[in-house]
Amino acid sequence: MSDEYNLNNAQYTSLYEGSQTLFRIISERLNVNTAYITRRGNNEMTVLSSFNDKEEIIPEGYSVEYGGTYCRLIISNEDNAMTTPDLTKELITSQLEVTDQLGVKGFLGVTLRDREGGVFGTLCVMDRNEKSFSGQDIEYLQSLSGILSHMIEFDQMSYNMAYLNVPIIPITTGVSILSVQGIVDSSRSEVILNHVLQYCAVNQVHTFIVDLSGLIILNDHLPHVISDLAQALRVMGVRPLITGITPEIAKQDLRNAQLTGLNIETVRSLEQAMAVIGFSLTETNNVSH
Predict the structure, then answer these.
(1) What angle do CA 94, 97, 98 make, to 5 degrees?
(2) Residue range 36-50: average pLDDT?
(3) What is the pLDDT of residues 67-83, one digit of tens each?
């Protein structure tokens, strides 16, 4: 799996929702109790999404060290697939601790890749009873893994876009500004909060300016991340300054006092914010002779 995307499992929302829809279809088509997706970590495989029809065999969040998983056998297979009618009778799988833990027999799994060809994890099905899977069954599961890879790409692109939409600009040593543009939903709020706090810690920021002039108010609600961010910055010893407050934002704050309730410093413009902290913005004219 590519390391450029640092999403946690919960951020693969499209993959999760899409797989839940497909799992029931897979279960009926292949006549199995359980279908699931794993994600490969540094040293382990973790179940990201699962479906259990009549009984729970494998829960979401179930994690096993990579060397002791069926996933290792799938990924290392040149066909990117592994199947057996009875895990307890195969020499390699019968010796794995996970076989005793799960108590399953019939198994089929294929490699799940991202759109760049990197290994994301596996797509697997299993059952308590012995099950023989045909070549068509393997092709069927592999075709569905191709669909899921598009969902992986979508989630990664969504994450990347949200990350890029946190444009922090260093003004001078210890002073930076974030211009919040557009709509800020819950997912983007989390990205903004995490990214800004990490940035301030790494770059030893002592004053952080938040410009709200481009913020779009959705459903007459001021995003809580603004007040949460200001409060978190204070805890870290960073001075927050809010600028660019529009009439719409001011009216929203009259109703819920998110900003005034925390006694956050607010100024009308970036120039005024810089003046408050002892800097001035000057225009330089280059004159050609």
Answers:
(1) 90
(2) 94
(3) 999 999 999 998 999 99
pTM confidence score: 0.59
Q: Specify the pLDDT at position 224.
A: 85
Classify domain 9-161 by CATH architecture: 2-Layer Sandwich (3.30)
Q: Identify the residue with better confidence: 170 or 166.
A: 170
- What phi, psi does 106 have (nearest 5°)? -65, 135
pLDDT at position 190 is: 83
| Whole-number Å distance between alpha carbons of 58 and 104 | 10
Give the residue from 63, 71, 164, 150 showing the smallest Cα distance to 110: 71
The tokens of 237 are what?
Answer: 């010893």
Q: In the chain, what are the domain boundaries? A: 9-161, 168-276
Q: Give every CB contact of residue 1 below 8 A, 6+ residues apart in sequence.
A: 39, 40, 114, 118, 119, 120, 121
Half-sphere exposure (CA, 13 Å, Cβ side) for 144? 27
- At 80-105, the pLDDT tens digits run 999 999 999 999 999 999 999 999 99
CATH T-level topology, domain 168-276: Transcription Regulator spoIIAA (3.30.750)
